[in-house]
Amino acid sequence: MNAPQPAASNGYLLLFRGTAWHEGLSAEEIQQVMTRWYSWFDKLTKEGKLKTGQPLANEGKVVAGKGGHTVTDGPFAESKESVGGYFLLNVDNIDEAVKIAQMCPALAHGLRVEVRPIVGSCPIESAAAIAAGREALVFAQA
Amino acid sequence: MDALVEPASSTSKTGEIPQLTDHLFRHEAGKLVSILTGIFGMERLQLAEDVVQESLIRALQTWPYYGIPDNPTAWLMQTAKRLALDIVRREKSFSDKQTAIIATMESWSSSYEELEPAFDDEIKDRRLRLIFACCHPQLPQEAQTALALKTLCGFSPAEIAKAFLSTEAAIAKRLTRARQRIQELKIPFAIPTGPELTERLEGVRQVVYLLFNEGYKASSGEALLKEDLCIEAIRLATHLTEHPATDQPVTHALLALMWLNAARFKARVDHEGNLLRLSEQDRTTWDGKMIAYGIRHLMQAAAGDELSEYHLQAGIAACHCTAGDSASTDWETILDHYNRWVAINPSPVIALNRTIAVAHVHGPEAALAAVKAIPHIELLDAYYLYHAVLGDFETRRQRNSQAASHFRRALELTEVDSERSFLQKRLHSCL
């Protein structure tokens, strides 16, 4: 990468897309993925690279329309696109964020991880930071 | 039982990350399906399985972020309870029983941290009911084993397929049919009583024994999974010994024979996966703890006056396990056990195994004569071990060319790699 590294990033969001990837997993596999995921989470937290991370419920609402009057049940469950959880990473560049995403233990089972830089208060600096890297969607090699 | 029951979570030596007991989810799944089947009824077995699966998924979705709870078992149980309550409230088909079910479930402790100890006996009771339901004689035996693995041991159809060298689709179909049969036949969620208990328990033990053998046999298949199958069979038999209705000497004999054979599981093959004979195995790799459990259950099996085939097999395994080295093996006692075994089971395979003991006690000539005397020996002609055993006896008689032709014939009859390379080795040594 030739572009100069930005001074500091505003962080990166990992969005875990897919809420049905665990279908058909056995109890044994569920335990294994869960344990690996937890040690991944724990390690990143201790290294100070993970600011926060939370799972999202499959149930929820979508609000739309001019006055926000259209409130529907979101089709979040069992979808490849739905976000099942997120990590807020405190790392300096997107390469490192991508490297972290690549360690996600559920990739092998079809989960996709979207890596999104967070835009800061100065949009120009942020744009430069983003240009320095690239948006990336990491998914398992099938 | 000490070997399998460990604290659900413990802190690892390096510190902070709590470790779950191996196979905790699988074992909890089996337990929870039993509990929920007691609530929903046997005809809604599938619903119980689905709720349990969903509870495990909820753990997968949240534990990575919030950490492993102090009492994972209680957490799973509470989650299953909440999911189940939800379904019972929503589903109209529960209408007549709804109030009663909700009352029962709400009486359970509602804490994520602890389970009431009093609940333990109830759990054991329900698990045993489910064991009897899954091993019901009106279900085909292959359905019984698949169902036991799925509902009681928490295996997925894919895992069962791997263990049985079948396809996932075939196993899924087998399970669906079994659940339908359960509904049609109204198979009860109950522990049989009176004379029926004896007969049904024998059937249950057979299923457990079958599972163990499936795991123990050295044919192809994933090694780890096969070992798991043996351990699951041991768990099921252990549950049987933990309930007064099924805690019988014969049950202990079955458990003893499984422990004593499982103790040698890892020593049976070398690093390249080649089969090793008993005399070639590194006895220091035999599992001393398992041998101790085996011996303990063998002693419990000695109560009463019934001498089952399980007793005799356990006795034979105990002779091997307690011999300091191959040379000090008590072959006379082994032969004595075989003599009693062939007296109650006419299987030519058992008679063939007996001749190996004969060879050790009376020499290869006597063993060959014993082979010739086996009734229906012709049934063994397509069995590679028959020819391998003959080859072995001829080797001991220094008749290498005869031995070689037996080993060649044996080689024609097996396609399992580990067995083939073993036979090749034997063949080369007599050329």
What does this structure look like?
The complex is a heterodimer of chains A (142) and B (431). Chain A has helices at 27-46, 94-102, 123-132; strands at 12-17, 50-55, 61-64, 70-73, 83-89, 112-117, 136-139. Chain A is of the alpha+beta class. A five-stranded antiparallel beta sheet of chain A has the order 2-5-1-6-7. In chain B, strand 1 and strand 2 (15-20) form a beta hairpin. Chain B is mostly helical. A two-stranded antiparallel sheet of chain B has the order 1-2. Chain B is elongated and about 80 Å long. The A-B interface holds A 22, 24-31, 33-35, 37-42, 53-55, 84-85 and B 16-17, 19-20, 23-26, 28-29, 53, 56-57, 59-65, 67-68, 154-156, 158-159.
Short description:
The complex is a heterodimer of chains A (142) and B (431). Chain A is α+β, with helices and mostly antiparallel strands and 142 residues long.
Entry keywords:
heterodimer; A: 142 residues; alpha+beta; 3 helices; 27% helix; flat; disordered N terminus; B: 431 residues; mainly alpha; two-stranded antiparallel ribbon; 2 strands; elongated
Radius of gyration of chain B: 24 Å
Element pattern of chain A in H and E:
EHEEEEHEHE
How many beta strands in the DSSP annotation of chain B? 2
Record the strand order, biggest sheet of chain A: 2-5-1-6-7
Reported for the largest beta sheet of chain A, the result is: 5 strands, antiparallel
SS elements, strand count of chain A: 7
SS field, number of helical segments of chain A: 3
Shape of chain A: flat
* Biggest β-sheet strands, sense, barrel of chain B: 2 strands, antiparallel
Give the assembly state of these chains: heterodimer
Principal-axis shape of chain B equals elongated
Averaging pLDDT over every residue of chain B, what do you get? Answer: 88
* Stretches with pLDDT under 50, minimum 5 residues of chain A: 1-7
Please identify the structural class of chain A as seen in this structure. Answer: alpha+beta
User: Which blocks of ≥5 consecutive residues of chain B have pLDDT under 50?
Assistant: 1-15
Give helix and strand order of chain B, one letter per element, not per position: EEHHHHHHHHHHHHHHHHHHH
Helix content of chain A: 25-40%
